[in-house]
Specification:
Elements (H helix, E strand, L loop, with lengths): L1 H14 L6 H37 L4 H8 L4 H33 L5 H25 L5 H31 L4 H31 L8 H18 L4 H22 L7 H40 L9 H14 L7 E9 L2 H6 L2 H18 L4 E6 L2 E7 L3 H15 L6 E7 L7 H14 L8 E3 L2 H22 L3 E10 L5 E12 L3 E3 L1 H10 L3 H21 L7 E5 L3 H4 L2 H12 L6 E6 H6 L1 H13 L3 E7 L5 H7 L4 E4 L11 H16 L3 E4 L5 H9 L4 E2 L10 H9 L11
Parallel strand pairs: 4-5, 7-9, 9-10, 10-11, 11-12, 12-13, 13-14
Antiparallel strand pairs: 1-3, 1-4, 2-3, 6-7, 6-14, 7-8
Helix pairs in contact: 2-4, 2-7, 2-10, 4-5, 4-6, 4-7, 5-6, 6-7, 7-8, 8-10, 9-10, 13-14, 18-20
Bound molecules: ligand C2E and calcium ion (2 copies).
One calcium ion (CA) binds next to strand 11.
Length: 730
């Protein structure tokens, strides 16, 4: 039983009984059309050669040899003879040319006007050419000959009509039509076969009736077989079709010869050759099919991978942008109703954090299907992470968003996830990736607005968006031209308010935008992972300024430099700092490294390593923004800082809130117990300053003592003794 089953499986595999899917069928058909380019080219070459032979025979040297056969031949008569003898070849060239042009333009997907006209003309010629030839060609005395010719003449217009229809279709819809292409190939194959039968068979018959002539069967059918070979290679669809077609053609031809009764001696050897040829042809057809099937399956997988998201198996962003570009060209009217949506799930990370990565992935797969379901008539794609992009219809998208929101609520039971959607209506030919960036931007704006689900990109955002693009695109230039440089904010001892340090704070003074503060560019540079470029530049500037001051024998104070969490990921921050110090010959006591507590708690391993390296090299490490995050105490437990910088939010409503005083008091005691010194930022009033001095905070920084100044101003203030440089600066 098993053997029968296996046997059947083998046979059905071999003969290709299984249905191919649409992609594979189209691939095989395209391959057929591709080979028809070569085939038609070969046919054209052979037929031209045949015509040249005729010219050689009747006009060029040796023509008089034939002259004796027909008496004194005039040139006109000879030309007519050539035309009569070659009209079939001309006709065959005609339709091969039509196929040749058709196939090339099909494969290259050219839908331009000249292509349309060329195909139309060649198709039209195939239809009308025959009217010129019918009268001369049909010799009604030879019935089989006449049948062959009439059959050939009746197939030809179909080829012409199909090509004409196809060119009209292509002109109108700007795409290929698979069904018409299959028909073109079939008609052309029939033309080939009938041509083969006509030239091979009927010539054989006509000569066989000549009693002086002993025809060689094998030679006579060569032409026919060549044509069959053409067709065999052209029509590689399913093996069983090839087998059926080839066998029936051979049998029909055999029967025709036998029935005509003119066959003299068909020797056994010829028969063997004949059948061997059939078998060889069948095997060629089958193996080409298998090869193409393999290629098709591979191509399908590759194509699938290139337009589908590997995790969620919905389309990826490339598919969406490619299709939108296509859409822009073909549906210029409809595009007015389209807009881009950028979808983001706020808090998605908690699934990965609280559950597992695998569960996060599973969630995304389900979510992707829901997005597809909610936007059934739009282009939907996953951009990465929990981000999806939809090219949606303006008239329906809001309903789709509501549907998705409901579905998401069901899916995320027990978790606090929120759908956020940014929308952007593109200009007529706007580049898709840029448009998607804008939708994403709008989505980012509502990230932290609890009650807002959807926001469309507007004029105000456009300005901010352009500013953002400007910052990203001009960072290198700004660094190179020193548009970005550190300003210095004084830090004083609380006991005597003498200057004991300064914090380097980046400022970007731009020739187009004017003054940009860190709030404008730091978050953008962090988001785009470019922040390390800025920080490396600030490190270099600080060291350079200090070297210049030392060379001028000025009094200098240590400078604190802000390090972003990403600096330790994107560059070797510790080495870069050390190299700069070495380059300008600055003692390391003059630099304080500021790291925020959130950086330390988020980036465990990398930062711990950097922290230890800095400690080993005896750098002073200051903890920035203490108390602003979630894990302040943990950070204090795990790392030993030289100075804790207490976040300025503890000073907000200082006068009205007694509790904040108690908290500040406790923090300072705690830091002291742990052997760390303290600094409070954002000191703006004498009240605050006095209180902080009372409770033992070591250093103070804030507008009360000075804002961040440009270097020259800072130095001038020191010179003017507005700031007294303390003798104890470390
Ligand atoms: P930060 O490190 O906490 O810097 C202190 C911020 O508070 C500065 O804002 C400073 O101008 C401001 N400030 C100082 N005293 C007072 C005050 O009395 N009252 C008020 N309301 N504010 C005061 P700035 O310069 O705008 O910097 C903002 C943030 O940008 C900085 O916060 C820091 O996190 C980041 N940043 C600045 N420069 C750099 C840099 O070179 N690299 C990196 N990675 N980040 C930087
Ligand atoms: Ca700081
Ligand atoms: Ca701070």
């Amino acid at each position: 039983m098993n053997i029968i089953k296996k046997g059947w499986q083998f046979v059905s595999d071999f003969l290709g009984f299984r249905r191919n899917d649409k992609y594979v069928s189209k691939y095989l058909n395209d391959a057929n059309i591709r080979s028809s380019i070569y085939m038609s080219f070969i046919v054209i070459s052979i037929e031209i050669w045949m015509i040249i032979r005729q010219f050689n025979k009747y006009i060029i040297p040796g023509w008089d040899k034939y002259a004796s056969m027909g008496g004194n031949l005039t040139l006109g008569y000879r030309l007519e003879t050539i035309f009569n003898n070659t009209s079939f070849y001309l006709l065959f060239i005609m339709c091969s040319l039509a196929l040749f042009v058709y196939a090339i333009t099909y494969i290259n997907k050219s839908f331009k006007k000249p292509v349309f006209i060329l195909n139309l003309v060649l198709g039209g010629l195939c239809i009308f050419w025959i009217f010129l030839l019918i009268p001369q060609q049909i010799n009604y005395e030879k019935v089989t000959d006449a049948i062959c010719i009439i059959a050939l003449y009746s197939v030809l217009p179909f080829l012409g009509i199909t090509i004409v229809l196809d060119s009209l279709y292509r002109y109108k819809y700007k795409k290929n039509n698979t069904i018409l292409s299959v028909l073109v190939i079939i008609w052309f194959s029939l033309v080939c076969l009938l041509f083969g039968v006509k030239v091979g068979y009927s010539d054989f018959i006509s000569r066989a009736t000549d009693s002086n002539y002993h025809p060689d069967m094998w030679k006579m059918i060569t032409c026919f077989l060549t044509m069959v070979l053409f067709v065999g290679c052209l029509l590689i669809w399913k093996p069983w079709i090839s087998v059926l077609m080839l066998t029936s053609i051979f049998i029909a031809f055999q029967l025709m010869i036998e029935k005509s009764g003119t066959l003299r001696e068909l020797q056994d050897g010829d028969k063997v050759n004949y059948i061997t040829f059939l078998i060889a042809l069948t095997i060629i057809a089958v193996s080409i099919y298998k090869q193409r099937l393999n290629d098709a399956t591979k191509a399908k997988r590759l194509e699938h991978d290139s337009v589908y998201d590997a995790l969620c198996d919905i389309h990826n962003i490339k598919f969406l942008t490619d299709n939108v570009i296509n859409y822009q060209q073909t549906n210029q009217k409809e595009i007015e109703n389209k807009l881009y949506l950028f979808l983001n799930i706020v808090n998605f990370r908690t699934i990965n954090d609280q559950k597992s990565f695998e569960e996060g992935n599973e969630f995304l797969i389900k979510l992707a299907k829901l997005v597809e379901e909610s936007f059934p008539n739009d282009y939907v794609s996953r951009q990465g992470d929990d981000h999806f992009v939809v090219f949606a219809d303006e008239r329906t998208f809001m309903t789709s968003i509501d549907t998705l929101d409901e579905l998401l609520k069901d899916l995320s039971k027990g978790m606090f996830l929120q759908l956020k959607v940014g929308g952007y209506k593109p200009m007529p030919f706007e580049e898709p990736n840029r448009a998607i960036d804008k939708a994403r931007y709008a989505c980012g704006v509502i990230k932290r607005q609890y009650s807002v689900k959807y926001l469309e990109y507007d004029e105000k955002m456009d300005q901010a968006f352009h500013k953002k693009q400007y910052i990203i695109n001009h960072l290198d230039e700004a660094i190179e031209n020193d548009w970005i440089r550190p300003f210095y904010q004084p830090v004083v001892w609380s006991r005597n308010k003498e200057l004991c340090g300064a914090e380097a704070l980046a400022r970007w003074i731009d020739p187009n935008y004017g003054f940009l503060s860190p709030g404008d560019f730091i978050p953008i540079l962090e988001e785009t992972r470019l922040i390390h470029k800025l920080d490396a530049h600030i490190i270099n500037c600080v060291c350079k300024h200090m070297r210049q001051a030392l060379d001028k024998k000025r009094k200098v104070v240590p400078v604190s430099i802000n390090f972003s969490r990403l600096d330790f990921e994107l560059m070797d921050a510790v080495s870069i700092l050390k190299e700069s110090l070495k380059k300008y010959n600055i003692p390391k006591e003059f630099i304080h490294v500021e790291i925020t507590e959130s950086a330390l708690s988020e980036n465990g391993e990398l930062l711990t390593k950097a922290f230890n390296e800095l400690k080993e090299d005896n750098f002073a490490i200051w903890l920035d923004d203490f108390g602003s995050g979630y894990s302040s105490l943990n950070v204090l437990k795990d790392f030993k800082f030289d100075v804790v910088k207490i976040d300025m939010k503890f000073l907000s409503n200082f006068d009205s809130n007694e509790k904040s005083k108690d908290i500040l008091d406790c923090i300072i005691q705690l830091a002291n117990r742990l052997g760390m010194r303290t600094l409070t930022e954002g000191v703006e009033t004498n009240n605050q300053s006095n209180f902080l001095e009372e409770i033992g905070c070591d250093r103070l920084q804030g507008y009360l003592f000075g804002k961040p100044y440009r270097l020259e101003d800072f130095e001038q203030l020191v010179d003017d003794e507005e700031f007294i440089v303390s003798s104890e600066i470390i």
